[in-house]
Automatic annotation (TrEMBL), chain A:
<dbReference type="Pfam" id="PF00266">
    <property type="entry name" value="Aminotran_5"/>
</dbReference>
<dbReference type="InterPro" id="IPR015421">
    <property type="entry name" value="PyrdxlP-dep_Trfase_major"/>
</dbReference>
<dbReference type="InterPro" id="IPR000192">
    <property type="entry name" value="Aminotrans_V_dom"/>
</dbReference>
<keyword id="KW-0663">Pyridoxal phosphate</keyword>
<dbReference type="InterPro" id="IPR015422">
    <property type="entry name" value="PyrdxlP-dep_Trfase_small"/>
</dbReference>
<dbReference type="InterPro" id="IPR015424">
    <property type="entry name" value="PyrdxlP-dep_Trfase"/>
</dbReference>
<feature type="domain" description="Aminotransferase class V">
    <location>
        <begin position="72"/>
        <end position="278"/>
    </location>
</feature>
<protein>
    <recommendedName>
        <fullName>Aminotransferase class V domain-containing protein</fullName>
    </recommendedName>
</protein>
From TrEMBL, chain B:
<dbReference type="Pfam" id="PF00266">
    <property type="entry name" value="Aminotran_5"/>
</dbReference>
<keyword id="KW-0663">Pyridoxal phosphate</keyword>
<dbReference type="InterPro" id="IPR015424">
    <property type="entry name" value="PyrdxlP-dep_Trfase"/>
</dbReference>
<feature type="domain" description="Aminotransferase class V">
    <location>
        <begin position="39"/>
        <end position="397"/>
    </location>
</feature>
<dbReference type="InterPro" id="IPR015422">
    <property type="entry name" value="PyrdxlP-dep_Trfase_small"/>
</dbReference>
<dbReference type="InterPro" id="IPR000192">
    <property type="entry name" value="Aminotrans_V_dom"/>
</dbReference>
<protein>
    <recommendedName>
        <fullName>Aminotransferase class V domain-containing protein</fullName>
    </recommendedName>
</protein>
<dbReference type="InterPro" id="IPR015421">
    <property type="entry name" value="PyrdxlP-dep_Trfase_major"/>
</dbReference>
Amino acid sequence: KQLFQLSVMSNENKVTFGRHLRSDFFLEDKYIPLNHGSFGVYPRSIHKVLREYQDKTEEHPDRWNRIEVNPLLRKNRELIAELINCPDASDVAFVQNASTGVATILRSFPFEKGDKVICFESTYVNVNATLKYLQDIGQVELISLSLKYPLSDGEVLDILRATIQEHNKEGKIRLAVLDAIIAQPGTVFPYEAASRLVQENGILSLIDAAHSIGQIPIDISSFDPDFFVSNLHKWFFIPRGSCILYAPKRNQRYLHPLTINYKYSFEGTEFEQEFWNFGAHDHSPFLCVAADQLFPILFPTLIFNPIEYRKSLGGEEAIRDYIHNLAVEGGNVVAKHLGTQVMENQDKTLIGAMVNVEIPLYPKTLTDAQVSSQFIHKIIYEQNCMVPAFKHNNKWWVRLSAQIYNDLKDFENGAKAIEKVCQELSI
Amino acid sequence: MTKSTSFGRVLRPEFYLEDGYVPLNHGSFGACPQSIYSTYRHYQEESEKHPDRFLKREVFKDLEKNRDSLAALVQCNSQEVAFVVNASYGINSVLRSGFLKPGDKILCFSTAYNAVERTMVFLQDAHQSRLVTVELKYPMLDQEILDLTRQTIERELAKDPDVPIRIAVFDAISSVPAVRFPYEAMIKLVREYNILSLVDGAHAIGQIPLNLKEADPDFFVSNLHKWAFCPRGSAFLYVPERNQGLIHPSVINYAYQGEKTQNVAATFEAEFAWPGTVNFSSFLCINAALDFRKSLGGEEIIQKYCNDLARQGGKLVADSLGTEVLENCDKTLTVAMTNIRLPFENKRNLSEAKIISTIIDKCIYEHNTICSPYKHNDKWFVRLSAQVYNDLNDFEYFAKEIKQILKELDE
């Protein structure tokens, strides 16, 4: 069975990445996968790790859950902390997903009546919903900024700066929710500069970096955000749902988890303990980061650890370069085929490993919601492909993701699929 | 299809439990049968073949099928059931939704689960809730508990007539001590005073029969991974339609509409359906778990076996130790968990925490068994769970081992 064979080629070989890597994953044969950004996938070898840890939790539930899992959880957090250049793993907590991480911060932060929060129309839909809820119950006042892409980083920062100047005059802007990479459109946001800008004005920075780990380099120490959340299951080949929440010690007193556990302390001095366990759940995804030493004797050529797997392909930088370049080239291929344009600014800073391409979609009778939904249905069930379609700045776009298992042919095939669906929905 | 099955050690191979391990603490973490795990893994693999097709479309059909079976089992409408990762998440969702105003009182009991108790203290600290705690010292009769509660409510109303007791939080089956609580009568009692009822039924499903339509709680949570053989990370929150507009999940999503909500039921369903990207596979194992339980004889037979074994096993251990089982005169406390007093004198004056951790460590690492030790009402107890894979031999074994452990504790 193909389960344990990795088609890893040596570093010197130029063809390290591409569709031959698809067999490292479970992805269906004929499926054209161009939406890694939504849910991620993990390599087959990690599945064995997942199973092994799930078995352990069933062999002796008390010994595992009370004692043995704890040092492993800690070790996995240490590896992630190292990866994002965070000096103390005690400041890194595991949560199920970025929506949970951001909601945790927003719903436990002790806002005072009248506190203002900066957010964007492009802030992730669940985050905006949480912010709206907080506004509805009188905790915060929202200042929502509109970004109409394409914009340069300078333009984005100017908009932010102008907003701060206008609103900080009367009343307090307490916090700003900043994406590292926006979901829709899938664009890279100047989050480090924005974080510094808001902090200079006495505003806390909450970085929703859901898409970041594995797609762009993260250096926590270099820009010192007030709060930082990133999914591991999106771009880092860890099983769903796994995410990290980082808070420097100075801000931990503001935070308590959405599900309070028996370590709760009002002073917030027990961050690591409070966030250690959110009630019974399957720990095994979180244990996949460090997963190793399980089968070295039986299967010496197998790589179970996403970090090691990614190293075997050339390492983080090589992967990021490949997926970025493919996103750029692939976007161009699709735009050329459709006769449209890629969403990019003059400085070429918007594209990470996701690229947005305008699509020739001119619905006559359908609502926007119907269009989005039917687009998904057709692209999945009729074209055996997947890209999300959305409206931005009065145009319809698709967002395409580039991963190590993609190559340009996928984008060519994707373009044809998109074209067909657009034709069918434009009647 | 039912066939007469032998329960006891002969069923252990259906689970993953280690050879030789004498497992007497099903109540803490549950245990998931191997056949259910193959369903779990099937869905985990499915979701990797085409994540979008699965998570944007297919998963919802399968979730609905499993939810329908669950609703039928607990006798309520499917649309009143929301899946949550565990009971604690459900309880936090309800209590922290925002319908509690500063100064509102919460009625609770001293036997609340530790994380639930801490949640209410958090509400006190962060949201100015006021806690009214009813002290319970077991053994108690159901009526004693109800009377004591009524007295407490009346006293509070007399003291602060303008301050509402908004909600009462109580167990269906408490964890420590592990005793059946008269939750059905309590729902009715607190309702007389216009107090909402949040029932922590974490231990309930699979251990006792449930009829939520009849019991009619305002909110009810239960873990499927405790006594219903589902993988860890699966629970449900029951909210009758009349209360659905009051609450929101801890992880608020795109379906939130606040004041603009037109269809309360549809919004409730959509809000709880997607807590961000999670592994839904555990919820997709409900049908497999219920089928497995049917193959063993069905809910009634399983629950009777566990109940009988808990009583017999508890008595066996108590007799062996020369102590007694924690039970009232009406014998309403014991379901599938039994509480046996320990003849422990604490000669070395160890701390409570040290005693608990030492007993657990020795059980696990030196005696190949497990229990849940605790102090209640100035006495030491162990809680033992009876499951389909247990029999009296397990309790006999435990009785011997715990004697040795207690001896070592005092040396």
